[in-house]
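Standup notes
- DV: blocked on the single-chain target, sequence here:
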Amino acid sequence: MLLRKQNLKKIDLSEILSIDASAFNGCVKLEKITIHSNVAPALGASVFGQSTDTYIGVSNPPGTNILYVPEGATGYDEGQWLDPLQAEDKCNFTISYTL
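- DV (later): unblocked, structure below
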């Protein structure tokens, strides 16, 4: 089955150590990411996109993009996870520490 990244809306990842380069690039409708790792995985280049045309979540209404991670998790609010994932002019994801 061919996965059409541009139609992907949700993804749920178990405990992982890294996310490969360009893994979510082009997933413009992706609005919910759930990661069950207590430490933010390392990110390859351009995981979340390269421009406003290809960033994840860009076609969703403001305030609907959410990254769910375990309560007390670390690293999701720093480094490569901050920009572009949380930048308002890029992916505009909010972190929810609720798992």
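- Follow-up: The CA atoms of residues 22 and 47 lie 4 Å apart.
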